[in-house]
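Question thread 4412

I'm putting together a teaching handout and wanted feedback from people who do this every day. The idea is simple: show students a protein as raw sequence, then show them the structure tokens that encode its fold, then repeat with a second protein so they can compare. Below is the first pair exactly as I plan to print it.
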Amino acid sequence: MSTIHLLSLPNVNTTAAFDLDGFCCVTIRFAKLLKGLGYRVILYASEFNEAPCDELVTCITVEEQQRWGGGTPYQHAKIAPDNPLWRLASPRMIAAIQLRKRPQDLICTIGGASQADVTNAHPDLLAVEYCIGYEGCYSQYRVFQSQ
């Protein structure tokens, strides 16, 4: 079975404490679903996590979130590749996936075009936007939450 490289957003910790960010909640629920279906899940996220996964790859620290978050409440963070949080986390995600990927793996994103650089760095893997509820869709494979 394929491994799922599940990307979280760098403005949150994948914990219940960040439940005002709907995409964080969806990431946790999606990880539970994937694990229940028997997939190997590698989660690329911050250092605090409650989502089930086989491996947590820390791509941003809480200290970095606080320093580079600009004082904006986490649920109002700008989801964009030019956000300093994304500029820190995305290259780390790219490098970590490079070390772990295997043929037939998938990258699942929830950040739209703000995470396109991560999937574009791995054109050999299928990229899926698994819960679209945002602007900036880019992947050929998309799942809308309303579906």
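The second pair follows. I'd like the answer to focus on this one:
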Amino acid sequence: MVGRWIAMLLVLLSGLVACTEEEPVKKIDLTEREGVTVYRPENAITYAYLPQYTHRASYERHHRLIEYLRQTTGINLRQVFPDTFDEHMNMVRRGLIDFSFSNPFIYIKIADRYGARAFARIVEAKGHEDFRGQVICRADNDQIRTPLDLKGKRLIAVDPTSAGGFLYPWGWISEQGLRKEDFAEIAFAPGPGGKQEKVIMAVYSGKYDVGTIREGALDILADRIDIQKIRILAHSRWYPGWVYAARRGLDRELVEKVKNALLALQPSDLVHREILEKAGFVGIRSAQDAEFDSIRKLAEIVEADASQETLR
């Protein structure tokens, strides 16, 4: 018995020696990283809410809606959570998002670049089919009273591809005769998700003088900060609201099932009303791509003066 243990020990030792003598030690460069491929779950149809808020907020707003769609359509629908607006668009391009719920600025991009098509749009919480952006500052900032007072100030926006958080309010800023060079700094909210909240907090803390957000975003932070300390300087014009789009090539039968289930949601039904209120809107109606041509025209005007490349 002892002899067997000694023999096994010798084998193990010889193996270790072989490793140390014959195999050179490999140094691992931790600065080199390889991208992780995202795989679609088998037989799952994916649904993504553009990450204007945190992933937690996105889940809380839409998980009851997702469950309703699963039960009503029989489709194995799964919510996925892109970290950024760019990642959301890239996942649509790669076919990793089947149903996209996005702002209309992102919609025209995924439609014109990747063939996504609108099939429904929401009615906002206050009964508007359209929505608008806001320009905000601290209520106690006496240096900002008129549009011309924005000159020389530090501005933070949600994202270069945010409709209410950048495109719409920047349209208002442009109408006032202001250009990017009139600001001391123009920045976009950092990191993944929760960008509306980050803009508000950056203005609330005094890090930035001015912020651009979508109307209604202040309500998200009403239980965390004193929103009376935030002043709304201006509202943008009204533009088309958030939209549901299907990726190019998605089975038309699936699209019709989801569309019909969404259109069937009625605020007069108690269960439906709870689903809609949780999601932050009061109704859903059908939509077509041409309804968003006004966004395309606005984007051409604004991007000529404030493209991502020149603002970064």
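Top answer:
Good format. For the second protein you could add a caption like this: The chain is about 40% helix and 20% strand. The first helix runs from residue 2 to 22.
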